[in-house]
């Protein structure tokens, strides 16, 4: 009997060791209220298409203050599942909108946040989707990279993600990943391209810098006044989630990478 109990305890310990981290973080009251508000918007959205749903949800976070480096974890610090909607950076903004767009309850939101932010649903720094194109290239993709099909001017280039030009890495403890990144030069984003973009598309600002795919991300929204780039802006003039005219934003970046949500 004692042997049986001991075996059961060992098996239980193994299961706990192999199980993914908990998908139920501690959430402050303001974030909890905002999550519930977004879930209500989602529930009341009826048969809206995917892009229109993303637009409606993302609009509820317009004006949310910008916060840098919102996630917790590194090669030396244990990763934590963060769900803090009091402030967002450009990536966490997209994380929350993508996760809530697939959720009906708060528990579902936390579960979907894990699968949106992490590979294999494991809350670990090494499993975090650190790069924008991870959303299309890694397991359980949240989107499809449609950049190449938007313009004959699209350029494909090989990137060694995470590798700095001086031989170091941006993220210690994370391997370098070779990936073909396709972008459309800003000068080539003409009327045909903007017409092919859909509300709800995820847009990244391409960078030629070694080791990176994009430097900023946001959501494309078509409005009566033209397309806008909805983003958590760190610019001093904004410092919050704002709508920026796409044409104005394109003048500040080398090009764009476009992912379409699944």
Task: Give the SSE map.
Blueprint (H helix, E strand, L loop, with lengths): L1 H17 L10 H15 L6 H10 L30 H11 L5 H12 L16 H4 L5 E3 L9 E7 L15 E9 L5 H6 L5 E5 L7 E10 L2 E8 L6 E6 H5 L4 E7 L1
Antiparallel strand pairs: 1-8, 2-3, 3-8, 4-5, 4-8, 5-6, 6-7
InterPro entries: AmiA-like, Papain-like_cys_pep_sf
Pfam families: AmiA-like
Keywords: Signal
How many helical stretches?
A: 8
Give me the count of strands: 8
CATH class of the largest domain: Mainly Beta
The biggest beta sheet is recorded as: 8 strands, antiparallel
CATH overall fold name of the largest domain: putative xylanase like fold
CATH superfamily of the largest domain: putative xylanase like domain
Query: Which structural category do the helix and sheet elements fall into?
Result: alpha+beta
Low-confidence stretches: 1-22
Please estimate the helix content.
Answer: 25-40%
Radius of gyration: 20 Å
The CATH architecture term of the largest domain is Roll
Label the overall shape: globular
What does the average pLDDT come to?
A: 91
> What's the order of the H and E elements?
HHHHHHEEEHEEEEHE
Distance between the termini: 52 Å
Proportion of strand residues: 15-25%
Number of domains in the coordinates?
2
């Amino acid at each position: 009997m004692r042997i049986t109990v001991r075996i059961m305890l060992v098996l239980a310990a193994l299961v706990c060791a192999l199980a993914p981290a908990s998908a139920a973080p501690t959430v402050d009251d303001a974030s909890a209220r905002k999550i519930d508000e977004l879930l209500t918007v989602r529930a009341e959205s009826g048969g809206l298409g995917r892009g229109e749903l993303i637009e409606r949800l993302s609009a509820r976070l317009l004006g949310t203050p910008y916060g840098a480096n919102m996630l917790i974890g590194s090669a030396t610090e244990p990763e934590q599942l963060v769900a803090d909607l009091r402030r967002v950076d450009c990536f966490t903004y997209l994380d929350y909108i993508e996760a809530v767009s697939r959720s009906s309850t708060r528990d579902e939101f936390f579960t979907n946040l894990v699968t949106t932010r992490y590979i294999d649903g494991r809350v670990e720094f090494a499993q975090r989707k650190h790069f924008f194109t991870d959303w299309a290239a890694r397991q359980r993709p949240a989107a499809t990279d449609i950049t190449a099909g938007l313009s004959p001017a699209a350029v494909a280039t090989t990137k060694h993600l995470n590798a700095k030009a001086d031989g170091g890495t941006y993220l210690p403890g994370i391997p370098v990943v070779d990936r073909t990144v396709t972008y459309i030069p800003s000068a080539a984003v003409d009327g045909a391209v903007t017409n092919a973009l859909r509300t709800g598309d995820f847009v990244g600002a391409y960078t030629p810098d070694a080791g990176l795919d994009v430097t900023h991300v946001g959501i494309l929204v078509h409005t009566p006044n033209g397309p806008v780039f909805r983003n958590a802006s760190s610019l001093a003039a904004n410092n919050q989630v704002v709508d920026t005219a796409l044409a104005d934003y394109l003048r500040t970046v080398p090009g764009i990478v476009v992912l379409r949500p699944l």
